[in-house]
Amino acid sequence: MMKTFSAKNEDIVRKWYIVDAEGKTLGRMATVIATTLRGKHKPEFTPHVDCGDFVIVINAEKVHVTGNRMDEKMYYRHSGYPGGLTSQTMRDVLQRQPERVVMQAVQKMLPKNALSRAVIKKLKVYAGTEHPHAAQKPDVLELG
C-alpha cells in the first residue's frame, strides 16, 4: 500500500538562484520566479509547506515591459489616513524604487495567505548588478 508523500521542513533542501532582469519581460520573468519561490518545480512539492528556493534578481531597473504600460500602469499606496492615497506611474516607480516593481509583480502572482508572506521573504531584488549573496554560490535560473 502506497502512502501519500508530504514534505517536512527538515527534509527540504533549498538552493539559491540568480536572475538577470536586463531586457527580460516583467510578467514572464515574475511567473518563473513565483513558481521557483513556491517550490512547484520540485517533485516533492507540498502545497501547505514552504519547499521553494531562494531567488536573487539583479538589474531590476533594466526590466522590460510591453505596450504603454510604463505610462498607464499605476502603483497605489495608502498612508492609513483619510485622503492618504498616493498613485505613481510605472515609469516614476522604476526611477525611484526599481526593486518595488519586480517585488510587487512576483507577490501578486503568489496566493494570498500566510504561507506566501513567508515565501516572499526568500526573494531578494537589487536595482544594480551588486548583491551581498555571493557566498551562497547561486545558480543561474533559466527563464524559459
Number of strands: 6
The share of residues in extended strands comes to 15-25%
* Fraction of residues in H or I helices: 25-40%
Proper CATH architecture of the domain at 14-65 and 98-140: Alpha-Beta Complex
Shape field? globular
The ordered H/E elements are EHEHEEHHHEE
Give me the CATH superfamily of the domain at 14-65 and 98-140.
Answer: Ribosomal protein L13
* End-to-end gap: 38 Å
Number of helices: 5
Helix and strand composition category: alpha/beta
- The low-confidence runs, each spanning 5 or more residues with pLDDT under 50, are none
Main beta sheet: strand number and arrangement?
Answer: 4 strands, parallel
Backbone CA Rg:
17 Å
Verbal overview:
This protein has 144 residues and is α/β, with parallel strands linked by helices. The chain has a domain at 14-65 and 98-140: Alpha-Beta Complex (Ribosomal Protein L13p, Chain: A). It contains five helices and six strands, in the order βαβαββαααββ. It has helices at residues 26-38, 69-72, 90-96, 98-107, 114-119, and strands at 16-20, 54-58, 74-78, 85-89, 123-125, 139-140. The strands form two sheets. A four-stranded parallel beta sheet has the order 5-2-1-6, covered by helices on one side. Strand 3 and strand 4 (85-89) form a beta hairpin. Helix 3 crosses helix 4 (98-107). The radius of gyration is 17 Å and the shape is globular. It starts with 15 loop residues before the first strand and ends with a strand.
